[in-house]
Each structure stands twice: as structure tokens, then as C-alpha cells.
Design goal:
The structure holds 2 protein chains of 2 kinds. Chain A is elongated, with a radius of gyration of 31 Å. Chain A has 2 domains: about 200 residues, no CATH class; about 170 residues, no CATH class. In chain A, the strands form 2 sheets. A 6-stranded mixed β-barrel of chain A has the order 2-3-8-5-7-6, surrounded by 4 helices. In chain A, strands 11-12 form a two-stranded antiparallel ribbon. Chain A is an alpha+beta fold. Chain A has 16 helices and 12 strands. Chain A starts with a helix and ends with a helix. By secondary structure, chain B is α/β, with parallel strands linked by helices. Chain B has one domain: 3-Layer(aba) Sandwich (Rossmann fold), CATH 3.40.50.300. Chain B contains 7 helices and 10 strands. In chain B, strands 6-7-8-3-9-10 form a 6-stranded mixed sheet, sandwiched between helices. The chains are: A alpha+beta, B alpha/beta. Chains A and B meet through α1, α12 and α16 of A and α2 and α3 of B.
């Protein structure tokens, strides 16, 4: 009986081929628009995440709990050699870079501002972070203990400094004494988010350890990259087991929770977005089904008259509504998948919004990604919404009086 | 026992213009195997009476028995099942399902009854053959003439093995040739298989073939003639 209901419902849909085609195409386009937007947004989000990981977060961090809680510059990583030896021994860690970090005032000839000074190993820094190699003027640090300084383009603009200008950094050392040092701007990096460019500047780790009165081989944190980001948790677990108990390892989602949450929030937002699209589409289908019932009053009345019971009639109307909705589903998903696959290769240029996007560390060309993980959810949403929206037309049909309906011309 | 027994059936329609008594205390019996026409001017209550007998409309007063069953007290659900298994309907406007072929239209009612596919297709074909339209079994209603559609409607009405067939103005939309053919078919079914037919009609050609003619006027039976 189910097969016959299905067959009859399918034929009923095509009684008005144009009307049904319009509804099916509208549904397909709605689904396509939803999938494409999800893919585009996800692509943008992935680019932002990757950019943040490559520019200033890395995949993971090793530090001490005291340093993370207090920011105490004396709380550098103990047993540094043992920690770095573990990193070297792990084949799941592709690169690592030690850092000393302190807050400082920077003063140019005319302006001053607060910054974070990153004392980095010039060679290792470039293996973990792209900001080190993304120097657009001059060069990155070359001398492990010199007075070279690399600043971001945004900070250079803010301070009105150029390459080879001298600037002064002022901060407290470990003992509480004020340190003031003169540095040369040997490089300006760009292409990172403006926020990072304004906040972070780089000096050699040797220079900073001396200025902070810390031992020569010391680091507040070590940032590292792994060979497989999807296996980060497992890699961290192995590293933790091989390292002194006093150090703590954090993945990028703990280092920057907002970035980690962005993925989850985005997923939720996208589901709400596609639900709104599908809701709008469902109203179109509701309207179509109500029209169909109005037009077929006489026939529905006859069906009840000859003995079609209410559950069968209900099943017929619900099936018609579901088929009308679901017919557009594969087309919409296919359109969405194909367009995202193509756009993932070519990218979508947003050159006109380049500056605004740079503020958030997003490149002006966005590469959408395919989102097969959403297809089943979308299909389920279409099914559930269609079913819910079929109830009203079905109820209308069930309320028909056979005698009165058959009088309709 | 009569096949159909009406006792003091009253049906009043209420409207803003006032109450209209469509069926006014009608009592009558119809025996199995009858070939009966209910006649009368428009608005005399023929269709209302037929709807009440068919369980499509409930009388305000009185009772209607079909065989051993009093249908006036049945629930809506029970009435639907009763109609499905006991009454065949033929309508003035044929009322076939447009998306189904003649064969599928005929078999549809058996599907509702839960008859197995092979059995219902075989019976549908036999019935289409009996009404002389087996050559058009795979045609949809829009590919059939009015007369052919009405013959499919008769086949459909017979498909459920009903106790009787109610035909509301079955020839109203047919030309004389189609009317003659349809009446021949129904008369043959009546004669050969004892199928009971109850018509409402204005058509003199139907009245001429009926063996009993019940005349209504203002909802009342004013004559009941066995020919």
C-alpha cells in the first residue's frame, strides 16, 4: 500500500508540472545557496584559523603554569634542555621555537605605545611562524644576540618609523630594574592581522634573555607545529608523558579559545541560517499544497466517499508534500557540492574588501570548502520541516466533507 | 429482510434564508436485485436521499438499515469502512482519479480493501472487460470519452463486491449512444449477477429502463411504482 501511495503521490505532484518544477527548483536553489554560504563561510573561517595558527599561535605551546597564570618573567621553563630534547625526539613534531616574552613600551622619535616583545630564535621562528618570513621590507633577525628589531607594518605606520630607524624599548628585568635599550628596525613584516602587527615585535632571544637578566638558554614558552593537526591531542598526550611534570602543554584551542569556539559557533550559526532558508522554502511548499488541495477538493471528497480512510488520505498528502520537498534536495546538494568544489580551486576574490578582511587576518581571496558533513543534517532538516508543513494541508484535506466537496465544480 | 430499509428519514438543511426540508419523513424498502430509479424535479431531494442511503450524509431523524446494519448510528470511521465494503458509487461527473489509468482506477478500491495485487488486477481487467472497455485499460481518464469514463466508474463501483450500487445522475453528461450502452451494461449486471442498482435521475431513458420508479417532490415520496 505504501508503494501505491508513493506512486500516486508522485503522479499527483506532476499534475501541475510547471508549478511543481518551480517549487522544486526553488527548493534546490535554496539548498544550494545555503550549502554554498556554509562552504564560503567555513572556507573563510578555516583561512582565518590557519592564518592565526601560522602567524602567531602555532599548533601548541609548552610553558609553566606559573607563567601562564601570573605572566611572571622569572617563571621560565625549567629543564629546558630536557623539554627541547623531547620535542626533537618526537617524529610528530615538525618544528618548535622558543620564546621569551615581556611587555614593553616602545618609543619612536615622535610616538610611543605598549607592545609585547617576543624574544625569538631567528632560525627556529621561521619554521613555526610565517610572520618571521613574511618580511616585506628589510630582513628578519639574523644575529642571535644583536640589537635588531622587526616590527609589523601596522605598528610601523602607527609609530611613523621606517626601516633602519632607531627605537627604544623600555621594560623591567627579572630583578625589577628598568631596562631601556636602543634597537634598529631591520625588518617590517606584513600580511598578518593588524591586531597582531600592532601588538607583537621581535628581537633575538639572546638579546632579550640578557636584557631580562635570565639564563642564556631560557624560554617562557615553546611553540611547536605538528605533522598532523588532526592528531594534535594524541601528540600532546605523548609529549606530556615524555616531559617534566612541571611544564604544561596546551593545544591551539586552549591558547586561543575564541578561535576554537569560532568553529563551533560558526557551525551553529550556519545551521540556523540554513534552517531559516528552508523555513522560507517550506512556506512556498505549504502554499503549493494548499492550492493543490483547493483544486482537488472534488477528487478528495470522492476518495473519502468511496472509502478511503483518513489515515490513508493523510499519508497521501504528507507523502506528496515530502516528495515535493525532497525532489529538490539532491539537486540542491549536487549544485552546492559542485560549485564549492570548483570555487575551492579558483577561489573567490574579495579585492574590494581587502583592507577590512586584513583586519581579521583573512586573505582577500577566499577558498570555499566542500561541506559534506552538513548534507545529512540538511536532508534531515528538509524532511522534518516538510513533514511539519505537510500537517496543515493534510488537516485541511481531512476536514473536507465528501458531499460538499463533490459539489465543487 | 430488505436490502435497504428507510424508516421516517428526515433531513433538514439550515441556511440564512431559512430551513429547507430536503427529505421529509421518507420510509421505503428496497430489495436485493432491484433496478430502481428515484425521480423528481430539481431540488426535490433525490441526491440528498441517495447521500443518506450511501452514508455520505446523516439524517436528522429516522433510521437507515443496510442489510443488518443500522448506518445512522455508525461513527465516521465505521461509515467509511462500511461504504468501502458495501456500497458502490457512480457519480454524475465520473470522478475518476486523473493520475491513474482505467485499470488502476478500477483496482484502486480493491487496494483500499487490502486485496492482493495479482487478484485485484485480474478482477479489474475482468470488470473492464464486462463493461466493454478492456482495450482502454491503460488509458488515463483524459484519454477516454465521457461514456468510457462512466463505464470505468461502473467497473470501479463493482470492484469492491458491493451489496448495491448508488448512481447519482449517471447519464447526465452522456450522449444518447453512450447512455444506451451504459444502461445496457448495468441492466445486464442486474439481470446476470443480481446486482442492485439505485439511481437518481431526470433522464427519461433511465426511467424507461427502471423496474421500479420512486417519485419525490419536496422531499416526500409521492409515488412508488413497480413496473
Amino acid at each position: 500500500m505504501m508503494r501505491n501511495t508513493l506512486s500516486m503521490a508522485w503522479r499527483n505532484i506532476w499534475r501541475s508540472p510547471w508549478r511543481s518544477s518551480v517549487v522544486i527548483i526553488a527548493m534546490a536553489l535554496g539548498i544550494w545557496a545555503g550549502i554554498f554560504t556554509i562552504g564560503l563561510t567555513q572556507g573563510m573561517n578555516t583561512a582565518r584559523t590557519n592564518s592565526a595558527l601560522n602567524d602567531y599561535i602555532g599548533h601548541g605551546r609548552i610553558s609553566t603554569e606559573t607563567y601562564m597564570v601570573n605572566g611572571d618573567i622569572a617563571a621560565y621553563i625549567p629543564q629546558y634542555q630536557e623539554v627541547t630534547a623531547s620535542l626533537e625526539a618526537s617524529d610528530q613534531v615538525s618544528a618548535w621555537a622558543p620564546r621569551l616574552i615581556t611587555s614593553s613600551m616602545i618609543q619612536s622619535g615622535s610616538k610611543s605605545t605598549a607592545v609585547m616583545v617576543m624574544g625569538v630564535d631567528p632560525e627556529r621562528e621561521g619554521l613555526v611562524f610565517s610572520s618571521a618570513v613574511n618580511v616585506v621590507e628589510g630582513h628578519f633577525l639574523t644575529d642571535p644576540s644583536g640589537d635588531e628589531l622587526v616590527i609589523g607594518q601596522s605598528l610601523a605606520d602607527k609609530l611613523d618609523v621606517m626601516l633602519d630607524d632607531r627605537i627604544v624599548l623600555t621594560f623591567q628585568d627579572q630583578t625589577g630594574n628598568i631596562y631601556a635599550g636602543l634597537f634598529w628596525v631591520t625588518g617590517i613584516y606584513d600580511g598578518v592581522s593588524n591586531m597582531v602587527e600592532e601588538a607583537n615585535l621581535y628581537v633575538s632571544i639572546g638579546t632579550l634573555s640578557e636584557a631580562l637578566a635570565l639564563p642564556s638558554s631560557s624560554a617562557h614558552e615553546i611553540r611547536y607545529r605538528v605533522t598532523d593537526l588532526a592528531e594534535l591531542d594524541a601528540t600532546q598526550a605523548k609529549l606530556t608523558a615524555s616531559m617534566p611534570a612541571v611544564v604544561q602543554l596546551d593545544g591551539w584551542k586552549r591558547i586561543n579559545p575564541e578561535l576554537g569556539m569560532a568553529d563551533d559557533i560558526m557551525a551553529q550559526a550556519m545551521l540556523i541560517f540554513i534552517t531559516i532558508i528552508l523555513l522560507a522554502m517550506s512556506f512556498g511548499i505549504l502554499n503549493t499544497m494548499l492550492m493543490a488541495i483547493l483544486e482537488r477538493q472534488r477528487e478528495l471528497g470522492m476518495l473519502m466517499a468511496i472509502g478511503m480512510n483518513k489515515s490513508r488520505l493523510f499519508a497521501l498528502i504528507v507523502t506528496e508534500t515530502l516528495l515535493l520537498s525532497l525532489a529538490g534536495l539532491p539537486l540542491g546538494i549536487a549544485l552546492g557540492h559542485v560549485s564549492l568544489t570548483l570555487m575551492a580551486k579558483t577561489g573567490i576574490s574579495m579585492a574590494s574588501m581587502e583592507q577590512g578582511m586584513a583586519e581579521y587576518g583573512i586573505a582577500s581571496t577566499i577558498y570555499p570548502v566542500t561541506v559534506p558533513e552538513y548534507y545529512l543534517t540538511i536532508a534531515a532538516l528538509v524532511f522534518v520541516l516538510s513533514f511539519l508543513f505537510s500537517l496543515y494541508p493534510a488537516r485541511k484535506a481531512l476536514k473536507l466533507n465528501p458531499v460538499e466537496s463533490m459539489r465543487v465544480l | 429482510m430488505s436490502l435497504i430499509q428507510l424508516n421516517d428519514v428526515l433531513k433538514i438543511y439550515t441556511s440564512k434564508a431559512g430551513d429547507v426540508t430536503a427529505v421529509d419523513h421518507v420510509s421505503l424498502s428496497i430489495e436485493a436485485g432491484e433496478f430502481t430509479a428515484i425521480v423528481g424535479p430539481s431540488g426535490c431531494g433525490k441526491t440528498t436521499l441517495l447521500n443518506a442511503i450511501g452514508g455520505l450524509d446523516r439524517p436528522d431523524k429516522g433510521s437507515i438499515r443496510i442489510g443488518h446494519s443500522d448506518i445512522t448510528g455508525m461513527s465516521d470511521k465505521a461509515l467509511i469502512d462500511f461504504r468501502l465494503n458495501n456500497i458502490g458509487f457512480v457519480f454524475q461527473a465520473y470522478n475518476l482519479i486523473p493520475v491513474l489509468t482505467a485499470m488502476e482506477n478500477t483496482a484502486f478500491i480493491m487496494e483500499l480493501q487490502g486485496v492482493k495485487k495479482t487478484e485485484r488486477l485480474q478482477r479489474a481487467m475482468d470488470l473492464l472487460s464486462a463493461v466493454g472497455i478492456d482495450g482502454k485499460a491503460n488509458n488515463r481518464p483524459n484519454q477516454l470519452s465521457g461514456g468510457q469514463q462512466q463505464r470505468v466508474a461502473v467497473a470501479r463501483a463493482l470492484a469492491s463486491h458491493p451489496q448495491f450500487i448508488l448512481a447519482d445522475e449517471p447519464t447526465a453528461n452522456l450522449d444518447s449512444s453512450s447512455t444506451g450502452q451504459l444502461l445496457d451494461i448495468m441492466a445486464k449486471l442486474n439481470a446476470d449477477e443480481g446486482m442492485t442498482f439505485l439511481f437518481s435521475t431526470h433522464d427519461q431513458r433511465v426511467i424507461d429502463r427502471a423496474r421500479r420508479v420512486i417519485t419525490l417532490e419536496d422531499g416526500k415520496v409521492i409515488s412508488d411504482v413497480h413496473v
